[in-house]
Amino acid sequence: MKYFVVLSMAAFFFTAFQPLPTAIPKQAPNPPKGFVTVVGTQFQIDGQPYRFVGTNFWYGMHLGVPQHRDRLIQELDQLKTLGCNNLRIVVGAEGPEGVPYRVQPPLMPPP
User: Fold this and answer.
1) What is the mean pLDDT of residues 16-32?
2) Rounded mean pLDDT of 47-56?
3) For residues 89 and 55, is the Cβ–Cβ distance under 8 A?
4) What gap in Å lies between CA 97 and CA 100, rounded to an integer?
5) What SS3 class is residue 88?
6) Nearest Cα to 92, choosing from 74, 109, 77?
7) Do 101 and 67 meet the contact criterion of CB atoms below 8 Å apart?
């Protein structure tokens, strides 16, 4: 048993600490205008460095309805002022149908 443990640990450490591959994928030959690409280890858009600041905008799905359009625009303008240029918006919900302020239909109605 002791031999098996030592052999297992040796195999783990041998594989866990291997150097990472150094090959870097090449950029697509003609990316569409405004499309984020990777050159080496850097993001770029149209040949210029691209850095992003992002956040989860979980309540954005609730503001997407017509009666909240003004609030949505206000929130997006505020995020842009703060330097945010990427959002992750949740568009799925769990729980029973017909509950106010929940995306319909829910992805998982019962628990």
Assistant:
1) 65
2) 92
3) no
4) 9
5) strand
6) 109
7) no
In whole angstroms, what is the distance from residue 19 CA to residue 26 CA? 20
Rounded Cα distance between 111 and 99, Å, is 15
Task: Please provide the DSSP assignment of 14-57 as one string.
Answer: HHHTPPPP---PPPPSSPPTT-EEEETTEEEETTEE----EEE-
pLDDT in tens, 61-102: 778 778 889 999 999 999 999 999 999 987 777 888 888 777
Residue type, 7: L
Partner residues linked to 107 by β-bridges? none
Distance CA(77)–CA(92), nearest Å, equals 24
pTM passes above 0.85: no
